[in-house]
Every structure is written in C-alpha cells, then in structure tokens.
Write a structure and sequence with these properties.
The protein is mainly alpha-helical. 49% of the residues lie in helices and 6% in strands. The structure holds s-citryldethia Coenzyme A (SDX).
Length: 450
C-alpha cells in the first residue's frame, strides 16, 4: 500500500482568528461587550455564545441568513465578488486543471494529493466500487417510478449497514478508505437506480475505468449494446462534479452537520444530506430549470409574459436557477458552466433550443429592475441541466448527479465537525408565540369551534 503522507494539511488545523475587537450591545439599560472574531479572509462575526446567559435574550434569524453556525476551513465564498475557493484554491483553476477525485481529496484532507496519494485514493475507489450482492434485490423493492433521490438516500443507509468497524476521521489512511467506500458506492447505487427505473439489468463497474467514465459505463452500457464512455463527455461530467463538490454551509451540508452533531454515523448523515438536497429550492433546481425551459419552449409562452408572472407575487412562479442566498452577483460556477455549454454542445454536434432559451431568459431577466434590485443572477443550476442533457443524463437523474458531486463536501464537513473538540449538538432556540398557560378542559365541556 502506498503510504499516505501525514502532512500538516491532512489534519484540520483550524485556528479560530484571535479576538481583535468587540461589539457593544445596549439592552434594557445595560451595555454588553460581545467578542468579534475575524476569519482568514477578513470576514467578521459577532460571538453570541453568551448572549442568553448575559442578557436573557436570544437572537432570531429565520433561515439563518445572518448566522454563522461554525468556523470552517473547507470552502470560502465571497457572494459580493462571486468568489468560490476550495481550501484556498479558486474554483476556476480546479475546474480547468483538476479532477473530481483529486478535488475530493483536497476537500476532505485539506491539501491537493501527491501523485502517490492520488493513485492510492483511485485504487481505493476501484477496490470499493461494488455493492454487496444482497443489496441488488433492494432496488426491486422500489416502485419503478420512484425518484432516484429517494432510492439514493435509502440505499446509502442500506450500504452503511454493511460497513463494519469504526470510522476514524482523525486518521488519514483509515478515513481515506471510508471516504473512498462511500464515494465509490454512491456512484454504483446511482447507476443501479437508473437502470432499475428503465427496466434494464444493473451493470457492474469496470475496474480499468476512471471514476466518472465508470459511472457513465454503469449507466449506459447494456448487455446487447457496447458503450465506451467518450472522454469528452466524461471530462464534462467530471467538471460538473468539481463545481458541485462543496459550497460551505448550504442547506444540505448544514443538514449533514446537524445529523453529525448528534454523533450519528457518516452514512446516516450523508443520507440526510441527500434528502435536503432534493428540494427544488436547493439541488432539485437543476431538474426544475429544464422543466421550466421545456414548458416555455413547448408552450410558446413569451419570455416577457413568463417574467411578468415571476414578478407577480400572486402567481407563485419562480425563475428557477436564478437567485442565491449568498451570491449577490454572478455565481462563478454558473459562469464556468455557461462557458462550457457552447464547447460541449459543439463537440457533440448538438444544438439544444433550450440553451438559446436559457440565454434569452437570462438576458431579459438581467435587464429587469425586479432582478437587478434583488440581485438575482443565474446560479449553478441554471445551465448545468443543459450540459447534462447534452451528455445524455436523464432529467430525473440531474439532482442525483448534484449529490454525487457533493459527496466529498459533505464528507469533509462531517469529518471537520466530528474531529472538532469544541463541536456541540445542534439545538437552536426558538421564540415561542403560541398560547400561554391554560387548564385542561374535560371532553364534555369542550365547545366546538364556532
Ligand atoms: C443551490 O446555499 C447554497 O450554497 C446552495 C447551492 C449549493 O451549491 O449548495 O448553491 C445550490 O441550491 C442553488 C439555488 C438553487 N435554487 C433555485 O434556483 C430556486 C430559485 N431560487 C430561489 O428560490 C431563491 O433565490 C433561493 C432559494 C436560491 C434563495 O432564497 P432566499 O435567499 O431565501 O431569497 P428569498 O426567497 O428571500 O428572495 C428574496 C427576494 C424575494 O422577493 P421579495 O419578497 O423581496 O419581493 O427575491 C425574490 C423573492 O421573491 N426571489 C425570486 C427568486 N429568488 C428570489 N423571485 C423570482 N425568482 C427567483 N428565483
């Protein structure tokens, strides 16, 4: 076995920035000094860990738009500048020059892998690409039209039942094995769920194929029709995975951390992350964007009238793939994918009218004060579906592709919180606005509501 070098980056060394300043809270005639922490990129946070014990009050921040849940060293986003970096490396460089497997190692262990570490990790992914034969029957237990995200979440927990031995997040070699096992089997589960949904036999992985090409093989090879993954297509999907690999404390990653905070195991935490990602406001948006563009294309509805509906609060229509809680300028991933759309479609000799539709819709929206005032720009999901369509991924598998890409980020966050000695169980407070105390009423005394 190639020794995995223990390098400083392999163990998360997170130094909370020293407290340099304080914020003063004046409340009910008293002043309270709240510590201010400054991150390595100059972001500031007001520490409220003692707020309730000192003041009796809690903060209230529905949706946590202003609340930091954790100090993390994994991913940095500057939403105003449209910056995204994994462990300090710009997403543009990783998408252009990296691979998904090395990006996974970087996110999990903190440093780009050496040649020997990368080869070792690839070997581990190959070694663990099969799922237990007993699990194949599980797929037949789902209705044929079950959404693959439901299958993925269920099967991740099922595969977790076969993982004996403890997970050692603080030991690089041991956790590399665990991470490879989960990352590799998720790919096999995803391909199997697709095959079962179309009534075709599950295809075994081919050990000689690299990670993403092997997924394409397992999805599209058939006993009666050979399929050799096109390197261009595999490279396009590999880039999609890199772009989706992590994104700081988004809804699904926070879910993984929430479940991990109770000391639940890695498989249970990631299975919960899959469920959170499934929602159309989150990872499910990539499927919703294509459904939106297809509706516009097929119905002939004008973009202007659709955008007018989106702006009308009563119409309950959203421009899917637009807007972001953090990015208040372009999502850098959307820029990269938009640029890749032309390249990939040209390479494949495909003209997709939905791409033209998306570009025109973006143009109309970005000229409109409604979107400009609310700083709504295309996000990662606006163009990703165009590329996935072009490379033949079926629509109901789009969010599964997002999940496969996000697995390393979820594992990196699970590991970071699990080895953090300061980590505590997530248990937010609330502001109670229900009935004040009242006495029990006997059944015979209860009056029906008028
Ligand atoms: C992902 O968090 C992450 O990092 C997520 C992600 C990751 O990599 O993990 O980046 C992946 O989930 C990307 C987002 C995919 N979702 C969509 O594309 C769905 C459409 N977008 C939205 O629903 C919305 O923009 C969110 C969910 C992404 C963000 O929601 P917020 O931050 O809660 O914003 P909001 O709903 O409070 O909107 C603020 C205003 C509102 O208008 P007003 O009440 O001020 O008049 O902007 C409007 C909203 O109505 N608005 C939209 C809109 N998004 C926001 N109006 C129309 N279309 C939209 N898409």
């Amino acid at each position: 076995m190639i020794p995995v070098t223990q390098r400083p980056g392999n163990v998360i060394e997170k130094k909370g920035a020293p407290m340099k300043e304080t914020a003063t809270l004046s409340y009910r005639g008293r002043n309270f000094e709240l510590p201010v922490h400054v991150g390595t990129e100059g972001e500031t946070s007001i520490d409220v860990t003692k707020l309730r014990s000192d003041t009796g009050a809690i903060t209230l921040d529905p949706g946590y738009g202003n609340t930091g849940s954790v100090e993390s060293a994994i991913t940095f986003i500057d939403g105003e500048q449209g910056i995204l970096r994994y462990r300090g490396y710009p997403i543009e460089q990783l998408a252009d020059r990296g691979s998904f497997v090395e990006t996974a190692w970087l996110l999990i262990f903190g440093e780009l892998p050496t040649e020997s570490e990368l080869r070792h990790f690839e070997d581990l992914l190959t070694e663990h690409e099969m799922i237990h034969e007993n699990l194949r029957h599980h797929f037949n237990g789902f209705p044929s039209d079950a959404h693959p995200m439901a299958i993925l979440s269920a099967m991740i927990n099922a595969v977790g039942c076969f993982q004996k031995g403890i997970v050692e997040p603080d030991k690089t070699e041991s956790f590399a094995k665990t991470a490879a096992r989960l990352m590799s089997k998720v790919r096999t589960i995803a391909a199997a769920s697709y095959k079962v949904s179309i009534g075709r036999p599950i295809t075994y992985p081919r050990p000689e194929l690299p990670y993403t090409a092997n997924l394409l093989h397992m999805m599209f090879s058939r006993p009666n029709k050979s399929y050799e993954p096109d390197p261009e297509i595999a490279a396009a999907l590999d880039m999609i995975f890199i772009l989706h690999a992590d994104h700081e404390q988004n809804c699904s990653t926070s879910t993984v951390r929430m479940v991990a905070s109770s000391q639940a195991n890695l498989w249970a935490s990631v299975a919960a992350g899959v469920c959170a990602l499934w929602g159309p406001l989150h990872g499910g948006a990539n499927q919703a964007v294509i459904e939106m563009l297809t509706h516009l294309h097929d119905s002939g509805e004008s973009l202007e009238s659709f955008v007018a509906k989106v702006k009308d609060k009563n119409a309950a229509e959203r421009l899917m793939g637009f807007g972001h809680r953090v990015y208040k300028s372009f999502d850098p991933r959307a820029k990269i994918i938009k640029g890749a759309c032309d390249r990939v479609l040209k390479k494949l000799g495909i003209h997709d009218p939905l791409l033209d539709m998306a570009m025109r819709l973006e143009e109309v929206a970005l000229r409109d004060s409604y979107f400009i005032e609310r700083k709504l720009y295309p996000n990662v999901d606006f163009y990703s579906g165009i590329i996935m369509r072009a490379i033949g991924i079926p629509l109901e598998m789009f969010t599964v592709m997002f999940a496969i890409g996000r697995i390393p980020g979820w594992m990196a966050n699970w590991r970071e919180t699990t080895i953090d000695p300061k980590a505590r169980i997530y248990r937010p407070r609330q502001l109670y606005v229900g009935p004040t105390q009242r006495d029990y009423v006997e059944l015979s005394q209860r009056r029906g509501r008028a």
